[in-house]
Design a protein that fits this description.
The complex is a heterotrimer of chains A (240), B (305) and C (364). Chain A is of the alpha/beta class and 240 residues long. Chain A is 38% helix and 26% strand. With 364 residues, chain C is α/β, with parallel strands linked by helices. Chain C has two domains: 2-39 and 166-358, no CATH class; 47-156, abc type-2 transporter like domain (abc type-2 transporter like fold), CATH 3.40.1710. Helix content of chain C is 65%, strand content 7%. Chain C contains 14 helices and five strands. The longest helix of chain C has 31 residues, at 167-197. The chains are: A alpha/beta (240), B alpha/beta (305), C alpha/beta (364). Chains in contact: A-B, B-C. The A-B interface holds A 35-39, 82, 135-137, 159, 162-168, 170, 173-174, 177, 191-194, 196-198, 216-217, 227-229, 232-233, 236-237, 240 and B 37-41, 135-137, 159, 162-168, 170, 191-194, 206, 237, 253-257, 293, 296-297, 300-301.
Chain lengths: 240, 305, 364
């Protein structure tokens, strides 16, 4: 198990943002982490990335403990979010060098992996262009590739496809599948319910607890729904 | 019928990059008119132009009978605007935000209360809470209240549902419909294709150009291609890749748990039999119907050549 | 008017809610005044003072006795010029009071310059303090008709710091810097925030007039500035004994004029920038630094190269310091500082015109 949590809890004052969640994710799995705004997804993700200490419970990511080995966790994961991913005032190549450098990649390896990445995205010509001048779709794909340039064991994607056009969105998911096929575990949040269908397993978080956790097909059967959208509505409504 | 909002040939470029290219459309009174498109399609630029904040390079528009250039101050008095990002004052409470926007727009919470009652009731328990501490859905409801508080004739909502979860989005659209029933023309933009169905009419927009304008039903019924929808119990990604190899298939896209394949209507039987020959573990969905996203993908691909 | 009121109300709420910033802008002036005050003040006690009595009258003897009895001075009688020079050079005394021959008679005749004070000005603060104390002690032995200074000619012996700068003189400069910081930076940052979050767009399409927004942003900071002015004045008066010799009313009037000029700078900055961060940087680097350096707070303007002196003229701080020195330290007639006041007014008007022109109702 690449991610494993046991009664993971986080409180802010008297407010319990994450309430004793337990789940595990296996190597190479695409794990969808769904929930309404304010359900506790971001808090849970922060704990798993080693950015926030839990109040109680246990969790390990890539074999490292979130309490004591957060620095090791950080070296073994990748992270990308819709809100911030690349520096718009740096060029494509500078962003690659920067992120690869953060993960302590050797210059030689950066050169090889960076070139390969640009080739796959057909961005060789744009190597010296500022990120800010690239269309959003290309930026998001590039951000994902850079987030996994150091071959992390797990990559966390926080609403990676928000606001992206439908074609790019599908390309993006093809990239996620490729990464998963290479053994990288993908932990992803999204507000697009069709994307929930693309995940191997989906967890539904409501008010800090996980209320459903299974493959999309089984979740739909369990909640007697035709689509993941309906599953989401049924679960989230319960909370209100 | 007099149009509430008419735009003719609006173009706008930033630093030589075209943001909008010859935009034409007309919105009727009390209609909910949606601009559906990805980030960077030009929706925000268009909304800034229509709310008179940004000048056009070329083209004109009329908003509720006023000319965009000559009467821009008159337009400002009769519109409501909710910019993309949550732009209320986070350090002010719900109550204070409402009070501020009401008075700034020469109104009071009471005078147009029936317009916002349904939304306000949901907000009332949190009225002493600072806006920044509200959940995404509540923030958005507050922003809508503030934009409506002076009973504008036209309401411009720029991506009100972006980053908001499906439940809050659905509630928001219910609120919006109630508002339009009270005679307020509503322009709304969204990157979520499925929200097109909530609008009376929509414009599909991509790279600064309008791809199509019509009612969602008409857009779907005029989908010119034949559609095949299938499911697989095997590896979906591999299946998609092999389907793309078939020359008759014009597009192959993943749609949730299904795969959508388009082709010329005449080729459909042949394509189906070819798929059946080559693939196992698949089942065809009976009577496949395209949705807005199929249409958007089609027009987008046509635009890109 | 209702629009305007509600806008000002909102601005006060913003400031009130942001307690950290509020604390900073209220405490900053206090800390600065205390810092400057204590760095620049040197209490004197038992300073060795040489006295050379060439009058030898009853009156001069009486005067010397007073110095003897003072807790501030330790008097050493000197008798010849070489003795004086020796004592000063060996650093064994800080000042020499020379009572000129026939001093008593000349004093009664109303002549001035009957006593000479030689001061070691290498430590200007001590020198300045000695001067004040000497003056005070002398005053009781002199006719009331004229201030003690007029009988005294002071000769600073080391031209290290001609202005004998002290906490007295730094209060106006300090006030100029603190008010510029708070007014210009806070207004520009606060307007930039509206732009950054997008709320400016909503305000623009509202019936609010641009002047509502602009003046509405200024008023709360003006209020805070007045609090700051009061605090700085009270602190410097009660803790360091800095007087306000002139009219308190004029003092406040010109302080507020300066505050308005600082607010106009903030306004102009906000029309140029798009983000709070850049507003802050321009306020700090583009305004604060020149204000500190060119207001005369640290270096006397008189000692600057000519072109820099002229350049310092575009910063209201320079003129404000001049006005305040007149009012606080000299009680000069208004006509003495009408010109600097006019310059501040002119700068303010120019800034406001440019800022209003640049304040965009619509973007291109």
């Amino acid at each position: 198990m690449i991610i494993k949590t046991e009664k993971l809890t986080r409180q802010f004052g008297s407010f319990t943002a994450v309430d004793a969640i337990s789940f595990s994710v296996s190597e190479g799995e695409i794990f969808g982490f769904l929930g309404a705004n304010g359900a506790g997804k971001t808090t849970a993700m922060k704990m798993l990335c080693g950015l926030l200490l839990p109040t109680s419970g246990t969790a390990s990511v890539a074999g490292f403990d979130v309490y004591t080995q957060s620095e090791k966790i950080k070296l073994n994961i990748g992270y990308m979010s819709q809100k911030f991913s690349l520096f718009t005032d740096l060029t494509v190549w500078e962003n690659i060098e920067f992120y690869a450098g953060i993960y302590k990649m050797k210059p030689k390896r950066i050169k090889v992996h960076g070139a390969k990445l640009l080739q796959e995205l057909e961005l060789e010509q744009q190597k010296r262009r500022l990120i800010g001048t690239l269309p959003l779709g290309i930026r998001q794909k590039l951000a994902f590739s850079i987030a996994i340039i150091h071959e992390p064991r797990v990559v966390f994607l926080d609403e990676p496809t928000g606001g992206v056009d439908p074609i790019t969105r599908r390309r993006f998911w093809e990239m996620i599948y490729d990464a998963s096929a290479r053994g990288i575990t993908v932990f992803v949040t999204t507000h697009y319910m069709d994307e929930a269908e693309y995940c191997d397993r989906v967890s539904m978080m409501v008010d800090g607890s996980i209320m459903g956790l299974d493959s999309p097909a089984r979740l739909k059967a369990q909640f007697d729904s035709k689509t993941m959208y309906d599953v989401f509505l049924k679960l989230a409504r319960k909370a209100v | 019928m007099i149009n509430s909002i008419t735009a003719r040939g609006i173009s706008k470029s930033y630093a030589e990059q075209a943001a909008l290219h010859k935009i034409d459309f007309a919105v009727q009174p009390s209609e909910i008119f949606g601009f559906i498109g990805a980030d960077g399609a030009g929706k925000t630029t268009l909304f800034k132009i229509l709310t008179t904040l940004l000048k056009t390079d070329t083209g004109t528009a009329e908003v509720c009978g006023y000319d965009l250039e000559q009467d821009f101050l008159a337009i400002r008095r009769i519109i409501g605007y909710m910019p993309g990002s949550f732009s209320l004052y986070g350090d002010l409470t719900v109550e204070e935000n409402l009070k501020f926007f009401a008075q700034v727009f020469d109104s009071t919470l009471e005078s147009n209360f029936e317009l916002i009652r349904d939304i306000y009731i949901l907000l009332e328990p949190f009225k002493k809470r600072r806006a920044t501490d509200l959940s995404g859905g509540m923030k958005q409801k507050l922003a809508l209240c503030c934009a409506l508080i002076h009973r504008p004739q036209a309401l411009f909502l720029d991506e009100p549902t972006t980053g908001v979860d499906p439940v809050s989005r659905q509630e928001f659209w219910q609120n919006l419909k109630a508002v339009s029933h009270q005679g307020i023309t509503t322009l709304v933009s969204t990157p979520y294709m499925d929200e097109a169905l909530q609008c009376d009419r929509v414009a599909l927009i991509q790279s600064g150009k309008i791809l199509q304008i019509d009612t969602p039903a008409n857009i779907i019924s005029s989908f010119p291609k034949a559609l095949i929808i299938l499911k697989t119990s095997g590896n979906k990604n591999l299946l998609i890749n092999s389907l793309k190899e078939i020359p008759l298939a014009e597009s192959v896209f993943s749609f949730g748990e299904t795969i959508h394949i388009t082709c010329e209507p005449a080729d459909k039987p042949e394509l189906i039999s070819k798929i059946k020959q080559n693939q196992q573990n698949i089942s065809f969905v009976d009577n496949p119907q395209p949705d807005i996203e199929d249409c958007f993908l089609y027009y987008m691909q046509r635009e890109n050549g | 008017m209702k629009h305007f009121k509600i806008f000002v109300w909102k601005e006060f709420l913003h400031i009130w809610r942001d307690k950290k910033t509020l604390m900073i802008i209220i405490l900053l002036p206090i800390i600065e005044v205390l810092l400057f005050g204590f760095v620049l003040t040197s209490e004197i006690n038992n300073v060795s003072l040489g006295i050379k009595d060439l009058d030898n009258s009853l009156w001069s003897k009486n005067l010397i006795l007073k110095f003897h009895n003072s807790e501030y001075f330790q008097v050493r009688m000197l008798h010849s010029a070489p003795e004086v020079e020796n004592a000063l050079q060996s650093n064994s005394i800080k000042a020499v009071l020379e009572i000129k021959p026939d001093a008593e008679r000349k004093m009664r005749a109303g002549e001035s310059g009957i006593i000479q004070l030689l001061l070691d000005a290498s430590d200007p603060n001590i020198a300045r303090t000695i001067e004040v104390y000497v003056n005070n002690i002398m005053a009781s032995s002199l006719p009331r008709a004229q201030p003690a200074q007029s009988y005294l000619s002071i000769i600073p012996l080391m031209y290290y710091n001609q202005e004998l700068k002290s906490v007295f003189k730094s209060v106006p400069g300090l006030m100029a810097v603190v008010l510029m910081l708070i007014c210009a930076m806070m207004t520009s940052v606060s307007l930039a925030r509206e732009k950054e979050t997008g709320s400016m767009n909503v305000l623009l399409i509202s019936p609010l007039k641009p002047w509502h927004i602009v003046i509405g942003k200024m008023i709360p900071y003006m209020a805070i500035s007045i609090v700051n002015i009061l605090m700085i004045t009270a602190l410097s008066y009660f803790v360091f004994g800095v007087p306000i010799r002139g009219s308190l009313l004029l003092f406040f009037f010109f302080s507020i004029l300066y505050v308005i000029s600082a607010l106009s700078f903030g306004l102009l900055i906000s029309t140029i920038v798009q983000t709070q961060q850049i507003a802050m940087m321009i306020s700090l680097a583009g305004l604060m630094l020149p204000t500190t350096l060119l207001s005369g707070l640290i270096y006397p303007i008189r000692n600057m190269p000519g072109w820099l002196q002229r350049f310092s003229g575009i910063f209201p701080a320079r003129w404000f310091v001049e006005i305040l020195s007149h009012i606080m330290l000299k009680d000069s007639p208004v006509s003495y500082y009408l010109q600097p006041a006019g310059i501040i007014l002119l700068i303010t008007l120019i800034l406001l015109v440019i800022a209003t022109k640049r304040f965009k109702l619509r973007y291109d």
